[in-house]
Amino acid sequence: MQDCKRVVAVCLSPTHRLSKTPALEIRAVAGLGIEGDAHYGATTQHRYDKRKAPDRPNLRQVHLVESALLDDLGSRGFDVRFGDLGENIVTAGMSLTALPEGAILRIGAEARLQLTGLREPCVLLDRLRPGLRAAVGQKGQGAKPFLRGGVMSRVLATGFIRPHDEVTIEMPSPPHRPLGNV
Question: Are 24 and 35 in contact (CB under 8 A)?
């Protein structure tokens, strides 16, 4: 039996800090991101990227992670809760990092998010829990690590997102490109 693709938790933070606070619902706004979140905006809001290229389009409006990642970290002794990795949305029943660039997630009745890339685990993770950054990064083939820090997306259609909302995936036209770092 295939797992139901769904939202497990939603989180936001009005200030630039690693962890976000769980909420009952969040509102995704087309072209801007999560209303009330520090990364809300049409241009990059990530502090490091904003210093380098303040007019660059915001490809990191919404951060999503899989509940399986949080479960794995917990089984390895890391006390990690919803929002601790900086995610806005926690999902279950799908492998987000296996989806191609441009895949669209329809969430709930109206929200639509387009995947833009992988989130590279931030150095701040080790300040939250020593060793967490290495635990989120996982060795892949060759010297390049496979990143499990979740995926980044931009909002295509405005809508509320709540825990238990169903998620459907629309694949982009072939050829599919794997997600790269953004």
Answer: no
Report the chain's terminal Cα–Cα distance, integer Å.
Answer: 34
Domain residues of the chain, as ranges?
6-170
> How distant, in Å, are the alpha carbons of 21, 49, 94 from that of 117?
23, 15, 16
Angle at alpha carbon of residue 120, lines to 114 and 126, rounded to 5°: 135
Q: Pick 6-170's CATH classification: 3.30.70.3400, 1.50.40.10, 2.40.33.20, 2.30.30.180.
A: 2.40.33.20
Taking only the tens place, the pLDDT of each residue in 71-120 is 999 999 999 999 999 999 999 999 999 999 999 999 999 999 999 999 98
Give the whole-angstrom CA distance, residue 105 versus residue 153: 9
Phi, psi dihedral angles at 96 (to 5 degrees): -60, -40
Q: What is the pLDDT of residues 29-81, one digit of tens each?
A: 999 999 999 999 999 998 888 888 889 999 999 999 999 999 999 999 999 99
Alpha-carbon distances, residue 131 vs 95, 106, 127, 174 (angstroms): 24, 34, 9, 38
